[in-house]
C-alpha cells in the first residue's frame, strides 16, 4: 500500500495517529468488539476496536473501527482482509463520524451493489444488511473515464492517478472543437479503480476545475 500525505497534515506523529493507523470496516450487525478484534488481530497489534451503534436503540450499525499500533499493520489489514469488510483508512477524528459514514456508504460501497443480490450473501452472517442499499446499479470495472472542461497534460494526470496503486495506463485525448479534457484510466484490479473513483471524482485539478470520474466497461465480469 502506498500512502500519499498532504504537507499540511501537521507533525508525523499527528498524521500517524489520525490517518494511518485506524481503519474503517463494514461488519455483520451481530459482531461484538471481541469478534472484530478476533478477525483483525492476525494483521498486527491492535490498540482498540470499536463498533458504531445507533444512539437511540444501542444497536450496531454494522460499522466499526480498528486501530493498530503501526501504519504498516493497518495497511496490511486493508490489503489482506476479506473484501466483504470493505476496509479503508478512517478519516481523522476531526471529521464527524456521521459525515464519514455517509461518504463511506455513498462512495465506497454502493457502486458495487447491483440488482437484488447483496454482495455479502456469499456469507450468511452478512445477510442482515438492508436490501435498500441495492438501489444504485452502477457497473464496476477496472477502467475509468475522466472528463474535464480543461485539457489534460499526460504526465500530470498519470502522476495524479498513479497515487493509487495498480495503475496500468493513462490515455489522454483532447477534443479539438471544445478543448475539453478526456482520458481513459485502467488499473490492474477493480478495487484500485473503485478507490480512485471514490477519491478523485469531484477532485479539483487544477484548482477550480472539477474532474468527473466514471466507470467504463472493460469487457470483464464485473461481478468479481
UniProtKB/TrEMBL annotation:
InterPro entries from the entry? Nucleotide-bd_a/b_plait_sf, RBD_domain_sf, RBM45_RRM2, RBM45_RRM3, RRM_dom
* Keywords, sorted A to Z: Repeat, RNA-binding
Q: Does the keyword DNA-binding apply?
A: no
Is Phosphoprotein set as a keyword in this record? no
PROSITE patterns in the record, alphabetically? Answer: RRM
SMART domains with a match to the protein in the record: RRM
**Protein name as it appears in the record:** RBM45 protein
Task: Please report the stretch or stretches of sequence annotated as the RRM domain.
Answer: 21-95
Listed GO MF terms: RNA binding
- CDD domains annotated for this entry? RRM2_RBM45 (cd12367), RRM3_RBM45 (cd12368)
Amino acid at each position: 500500500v502506498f500512502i500519499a500525505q498532504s504537507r499540511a497534515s501537521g507533525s508525523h506523529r499527528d498524521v500517524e495517529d489520525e490517518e494511518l493507523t485506524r481503519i474503517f470496516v463494514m461488519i455483520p450487525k451481530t459482531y461484538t468488539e471481541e469478534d472484530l478484534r478476533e478477525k483483525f488481530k492476525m494483521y498486527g497489534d491492535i490498540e482498540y476496536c470499536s463498533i458504531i451503534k445507533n444512539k437511540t436503540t444501542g444497536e450496531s450499525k454494522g460499522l466499526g473501527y480498528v486501530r493498530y499500533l503501526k501504519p504498516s499493520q493497518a495497511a496490511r489489514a486493508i490489503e489482506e482482509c476479506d473484501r466483504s469488510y470493505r476496509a479503508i483508512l478512517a478519516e481523522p477524528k476531526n471529521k464527524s463520524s456521521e459525515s464519514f459514514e455517509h461518504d463511506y456508504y455513498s462512495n465506497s460501497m454502493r457502486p458495487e451493489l447491483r440488482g437484488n443480490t447483496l454482495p455479502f450473501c456469499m456469507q450468511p452472517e452478512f445477510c442482515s444488511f438492508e436490501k435498500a442499499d441495492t438501489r444504485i446499479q452502477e457497473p464496476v470495472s477496472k477502467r475509468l473515464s475522466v472528463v474535464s472542461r480543461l485539457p489534460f497534460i499526460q504526465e500530470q494526470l498519470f502522476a495524479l492517478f498513479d497515487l493509487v496503486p495498480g495503475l496500468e495506463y493513462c490515455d489522454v485525448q483532447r477534443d479539438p472543437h471544445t478543448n475539453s479534457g478526456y482520458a481513459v484510466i485502467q488499473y490492474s484490479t477493480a478495487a484500485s479503480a473503485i478507490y480512485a473513483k471514490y477519491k478523485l471524482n469531484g477532485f479539483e485539478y487544477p484548482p477550480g476545475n472539477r474532474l468527473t470520474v466514471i466507470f467504463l466497461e472493460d469487457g470483464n465480469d464485473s461481478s468479481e
